[in-house]
């Protein structure tokens, strides 16, 4: 089993989620996060004062997948979330030891 984690732009969520559903992924966790990379932060003006905002809002997606689906899911997320501009995000995967569906007690691939 693999845990595929992606940090993407908020506007890319719906296209990525739709593509994952179409591929056959049945679950996805989304968390609102903020951070910075090469894109850095930005400056805003509030009541005449300029403020430096060091973090940019993003979404963190977590997808549990079978090992044989790892590369396809990563490629799908990258292709769907890519705008070609700096700040599109990152995708990585991690090994998962055990997955259990709480409701039924199913384990492993059956729990997906």
From TrEMBL:
GO CC, one annotated term = cytosol
Q: Which Pfam families does the UniProt record give?
A: P-II (PF00543)
* Family matches, as InterPro entries: N-reg_PII, N-reg_PII-like_a/b, N-reg_PII/ATP_PRibTrfase_C, N-reg_PII_urydylation_site
Does the record carry Nucleotide-binding as a key word? Answer: yes
Give an example GO biological process.
regulation of nitrogen utilization
Q: Which Gene3D superfamilies does the UniProt entry name for this protein?
A: 3.30.70.120
Print the keywords alphabetically.
Nucleotide-binding, Phosphoprotein, Transcription, Transcription regulation
Which of the residues bear the PTM O-UMP-tyrosine?
A: 51
Single GO molecular function: ATP binding
Q: Keyword Transcription regulation, does the record have it?
A: yes
Binding partners and assembly? Homotrimer.
Q: By what name is this protein known?
A: Nitrogen regulatory protein P-II
Q: Which organism is it from?
A: Brachybacterium vulturis
